Amino acid sequence: MALPAPASTVSSALVALTVFRASAWACLLCFTSYNERLQICQIFAGLESPELGKCEEAFTDAFKGLLDTEINYDERSQLHDAFTQMTYSLQEVAAAQGSFRAAFPHAAEKMQKIILQLKEGLQEVARRFRCHGCYSTVCDLPLDCPVQDVTVTRGHQALFSCTVNFQLPKEEITYSWKFAGGLRTRDLSYFRDIPRARGYLARIRPVQPTHRGTFSCEITHDQRPLARLYFFLNVTGPPPRGETELQVSFREVLRWAPREVEVIEPWRPSLGELLARPEALTPGNQCLLAAAVALASASATVLAWLFFRWYCSGD
Question: Structure pTM?
Answer without folding.
Answer: 0.39
